[in-house]
Amino acid sequence: FQAEVVGSQSIEAELRRLREENRQLKMERDILKKATAFFAKESH
Q1: What is the dihedral of CA 21, 25, 27, 28, to 10 degrees?
Q2: Given CA atoms 31, 32, 35, 40 in this order, what sign does their dihedral have?
Q3: Mean pLDDT value across residues 3-29
Q4: How many other CB atoms are there within 10 angstroms of residue 2's CB atom?
Q5: In angstroms, rounded to a whole number, what is the distance separating the alpha carbons of residues 12 and 7?
Q6: 43 band by pLDDT with thresholds 50, 70 and 90
Q7: Three-class secondary structure assignment of the chain
Q8: pLDDT bucket at 9, cuts 50 / 70 / 90
Q9: CB-based contacts of 14: which residues, under 8 Å, 6+ apart?
Q10: In angstroms, what CA-CA distances link 34 with 1, 26, 29, 30?
Q11: Which long-range contacts (CB under 8 A, 24 or more apart) does 14-21 make?
Q12: Chain Cα centroid distance, residue 38
């Protein structure tokens, strides 16, 4: 990983991308939590 000097527009675009990725990952995590709870309940 190399640091580079970027303009504020690039930083804002990266921030938007990371926020969207974060939102997506949280949604996937919540789905997996629900699925885990469902299957744990089913196996008993």
Answers
A1: 140
A2: negative
A3: 89
A4: 3
A5: 9
A6: confident
A7: CCCCCCCHHHHHHHHHHHHHHHHHHHHHHHHHHHHHHHHHHHCC
A8: confident
A9: 6
A10: 36, 12, 9, 6
A11: none
A12: 22
Query: What is the predicted pLDDT for the residue at 31?
Result: 98
Output the six-digit token pair for 10: 């690039």
For the CA atoms of the chain, what is the radius of gyration?
Answer: 18
Distance CA 35, CA 44 (A): 15
- What are 1's two structure tokens? 């990983």
> How far apart are alpha carbons 39 and 42 in whole angstroms?
5
